[in-house]
Design a protein that fits this description.
Length: 181
């Protein structure tokens, strides 16, 4: 994981499925991405707000691995950073294999704590028909494998840019497997 890095950063101040790429984003401790519609202490995703707007926001920063774009390209889909709604596009790190509580240092200062998996939604198929099936696989036991990235909360703020390194600090064992958040 020594070569893990950020390949793109994205944010959007309004609700939309995709997020435009930026030269940099600023992470704010306990809130998320400055100016992003999903930033806040409590849930901001519309479906979660409808269920209980007082719940803590465990989805402040969405990270997705660029390698997923290569994988879906093999099935004829073209996906660019930010188009699946992520804030941080990574390279060289198996995000889906990280345990809950992993700390990711993004660049010089920012630190996010991994909270769980992104739950792929029907909006992915509205973006490109058939893409949802590509980002939800099955393991050997037939259980769903959610490949649309991970969610995190900001523990220490800072500015994040493409090209910044990613440093991984695993939590003390036993490690908890990522689940949907």
């Amino acid at each position: 994981m020594n070569s893990a890095q950020i390949t793109a950063v994205s944010s959007n101040g309004v609700y939309s499925f995709t997020k435009p790429r930026r030269e940099s984003i600023t992470l704010l401790a306990g809130l998320g991405v400055e100016g992003d519609v999903h930033a806040g202490v409590t849930v901001k995703h519309r479906s979660r707000v409808a269920q209980d707007p007082t719940r803590p926001n465990l989805r402040q920063v969405h990270l997705i691995h660029r390698e997923l774009f290569d994988e879906v390209a093999g099935s004829g889909f073209t996906v660019e950073p930010g188009q699946l709604g992520e804030n941080v596009t990574t390279e060289g790190i198996d995000l889906l294999a990280l345990p809950v509580g992993t700390l990711l240092r993004l660049g010089e200062e920012a630190v996010v704590e991994v909270t769980g998996l992104r739950n792929p939604c029907l909006q992915i198929d509205k973006f490109q028909s058939g893409l949802l099936k590509q980002v939800v696989g099955r393991d050997e036991e037939g259980r769903p494998v959610l490949k649309a990235g991970i969610m995190s909360v900001v523990r220490h703020g800072g500015t994040v840019r493409p090209g910044d390194p990613i440093t991984v600090t695993l939590p003390a064992p036993p490690h908890a497997r990522l689940e949907r958040v």
